[in-house]
Design a protein that fits this description.
By secondary structure, the protein is an alpha+beta fold. Helix content is 24%, strand content 22%. The strands form 2 sheets. A 4-stranded mixed beta sheet has the order 4-3-5-6, with helices on one face. Helix 1 packs parallel to helix 2. It starts with a strand and ends in an 18-residue tail after the last helix. The C terminus is likely disordered. The structure holds FE2/S2 (inorganic) cluster. FE2/S2 (inorganic) cluster (FES) binds next to loops.
Amino acid sequence: MRKTRIQRLDGKKVDVVLHLGNVFVCSHGLCCGKAERGYGPDLRELHQMEWHRRKLGKTVYLTQSGCLGLCALGNTVLLIFQGHPLWFHSFNTVEQVSALYDYIEAMVIAKQCLPVPDTLRDSVLEKGLEKGALRDMTSLVAPLEEPSGSKICACE
Ligand code: FES
C-alpha cells in the first residue's frame, strides 16, 4: 500500500492510497448474475469472500460495480493491475473466481503483472475479438502513472 498526498481542486491536500490494482465485478447490472434471465449465476458473495480471505484490501481494491457495458458476455469482470486492464467474461463458476484471486494474489506477491494462468485463459476477453478491438477498448482506461509521469506498468 502506498499513500500519496494529492491536492484536490478545492485546495485541500489529502492522503490517497494507491492500490496495486482494482477488480470491478459487474454486480448491479441487469444481466450479470441474473441466471433467471439466461446469464451466469450471482457470484458476488464469492468474490467478496475470496477477496477478504486473502486480505487483499490494502493492495487490490474490489468494487462491486454496476453494468460494465458488456452485458451479452456476462458475467464480466475488469481487473486493472498496475494500470494494465484485463477483461474477463463468462465468469460463471466457483473455480474461475477462485483462480482469479489466486492470480491476483500471485501478482501482489510478485509486485508485478504476470501472464494469465491457463485456468483463466478461456475467459479473457481478447479471445475471439478482431485484431485491435481490445486496444480500442483498453485505451478508454487511463494507465496509472508515477507522479514524475513515468509509467509504473511493466507488463506491456
Ligand atoms: S450487466 Fe454486466 S456488463 Fe452489463
